[in-house]
Amino acid sequence: MQPLLSQTSIKQQVDELMSKMTLAQKIGQMTQAERLGCTPDDVRKYHLGSVLSGAGSLPENNNIESWLKITDSYWQASMVNDANHLAIPLLYGVDAIHGHNNLKGATIFPHNIGLGAANDTDLVARIAEVTRKEVLASGVDWVFAPNLAVAQNNQWGRCYESFAQTPQLINQYASEIINGLHGKLAGEGVIACVKHWVGDGATAHGIDQGDANITWLELNNTHISPYISALKAGAMTVMASFNSWNGNKCHGHKYLLTDVLKQQLNFSGFIVSDMNGIDYLCDDFYLSVAQGVNAGIDMFMLPENWLQFIQHLHNHVELGTVPMSRINDAVRRILLVKFASGLFDTPCPSERVWANHASFGAIEHRSVAREAVRKSLVLLKNKKNILPLKKQARILVTGKNADNIGHQCGGFTINWQGVSANDAFEGATSIWQGIAAVAPNAVLRRHDDVLAISAKEHDIAVVVIGEYPYAEGHGDIRDCENLIIEAGSQINGQVNISAPYGNSLALKKLHPEDYLLIKDISDKGIPLIVILISGRTLIINDELDKSAAFIAAWLPGSEGQGLSDMLFGEFNFQGKLSFSWPKTSSTEKKKAAAKPLFPMGYGLRYKIK
Fold first, then answer.
1. Three-class DSSP category at 429
2. What three-state secondary structure class fits 161?
3. Long-range interactions of 308-316: CB distance < 8 A, separation 24+
């Protein structure tokens, strides 16, 4: 399935290099540290195979020059060739899940849930190409994307990382994204890493890192399916998932990692753990190391305790609790990817073709993101065809998400949990800024100011409401803490649970200030256009009732003008829900099949006047 990895010449190069490697050098290749926890000297001394910048791990100034300085330093350390160290190029990895989202000035695309609503494979391919070029500009060669989760519960804090609740669209997207990220490789492509293997979107009650209590048939048909498409497209790295399957953690699941992925699916690339993923296999880290390696993980993402991992694994090999054959298999897979991707023939990051390229954050890239915003928007309501608006209308723009680029980008943007500001971005446009650029009579007001206005001052109001940024378990919705006890009691190993975002999917309960703002404007008799910024479908019955039009904007990213394009009829709506929209919030399975407020595939259009 990965033709590059099967080339005889590459296998011969790997065998020749491995014949020269010591045990320490092999274990080093299996180790990935975080840049804040290791130095370039550590890379050379311990022969580290990879370094990552985790979400929010930003160099000083957070610009292309500072990124290139960092990636150069680690690369050069890895390429020292002397009596103690073999020159083996380092893999530098980042989470680039909606553009190069760590780097200020990058083009930030809608999160996956919005791209699922767009239902456009050509668009997704072009997004992957832009992401590739902007990542390469900073000297990075490995991205932890795409996320192929098939989210089944909108209470999950990572729901926005999923394209759809069914696998068919994700299957199509997977191959397009892999091809777009890889490009030609050999210095002009980045290595994709599909994640998270497997079943992370199926956990009970949508609990992040929880237990997927599902049959093999459901796991295979729904959650493994997108990986088959990705592997056929040439995916060379796979990230293991934090979740468990029927009580057994994926990071220690030999059947899923080795028997299914490597043997049944003929995956010849390498598996990387998620961050500290083996830490939760058991209470003893020493035992967790052996369990993870023997289960089939090849490289270990360990931001802080990477040196302890190296020491423990060395001891396991000496004692025979981890066979040397498993070490050799892991290292061979890692080196196969490094040779096949052209890393051995690539210069240091700052000397590569795309380094500090002028296209980074440029208009041609932002135009793709703006198009993605337009195509991702779903029009849920348009009473009396109030949309599109006239540009000369007296428009009141308000709501906490109207002029906040951080909020419209969501989690995994600049920082792990996102940011709440405009000054963290360069070249980006808020929703308000997009409206103001084309509507001369539009005004932006805070909620307190809205109380003093009269209906005679405004023809219409655009109210931008919704969620604050969040990532992973911090975005979970849990209406009962007993769910944690119930879910955790079935899992073998430790359960890592974050404080949730809230206890209800009802927007009125999560953010009562939004409903009060809508009510205050509605009571004045001003028609409302409501724009919802969210990483999932929410209970919006009351807000919907008081609106004349309602738009699900998801987490649109850095190009707020995409909203104004649609509000004023420059383009028609084409987004369709890739998730059904619920009427009620419930964790009870018997209510899960209740008729939705809007079915999957729903989305209105209007006649452009």
1. strand
2. helix
3. 309/31, 310/24, 310/27, 310/28, 310/31, 310/46, 312/285, 312/286, 313/27, 313/30, 313/289, 314/23, 314/24, 314/27, 315/286, 316/289, 316/290
User: How confident is the model at residue 479, as a pLDDT?
Assistant: 83
pLDDT of residue 588: 42
Nearest to 2 by CA among 346, 336, 344, 342: 336
Record the tokens describing residue 487, joined without a space: 């879910």
Side-chain half-sphere CA neighbours of 551 within 13 A: 32
Question: What is the mean pLDDT, run by run of 10 residues, along the chain of 609 residues?
Answer: 78 97 99 98 99 94 97 98 95 98 98 99 99 98 99 98 99 99 90 99 96 98 99 98 98 99 98 98 97 99 97 99 99 98 96 95 99 99 98 98 99 98 96 99 94 93 99 93 62 82 97 98 98 99 98 99 98 98 68 81 86
Q: Looking at the annotation, which residues are catalytic?
A: 274, 472
Dist. CA 604–CA 398, nearest whole Å = 24
pLDDT in the model for residue 482: 64
Where do the structural domains in the chain lie, given as residue ranges?
3-20+34-250+259-269+329-351, 377-591
Longest dimension (CA), the chain: 82
83 secondary structure, DSSP code: S
Topology of the domain comprising 3-20+34-250+259-269+329-351: TIM Barrel (3.20.20)
Buried b (16+ CB within 10 A) or exposed e, 346-384: bebbbebebbbeeebbeeebbebbbbbbbbbbbbbbbee
What tokens appear for 515 in the block? 């409903």
pLDDT at 609: 53
Query: For residues 198 and 149, what is the distance between their CA atoms, to the nearest angstrom?
Result: 8
Q: Return the DSSP state at 550.
A: E
**476 closest CA partner among 92, 137, 209:** 209
Say how far residue 466 (Cα) sits from the centre of its chain. 20
Cα angle 538, 541, 542; round to 5: 115
d(CA 543, CA 515): 6
Q: Element (H or E) spanning 178, and its range?
A: helix 167-182
Q: For 31, phi and psi rounded to 5 degrees? A: -110, 130
Strands 378-382 and 549-554: antiparallel
Taking domain 377-591, whether its CATH number is 3.40.50.1700 is answered by yes
Dihedral sign for Cα 208, 210, 214, 217, please: positive
Helices (H) and strands (E) in the chain, counts: 22, 17
Q: What is the per-residue pLDDT for 533?
A: 99
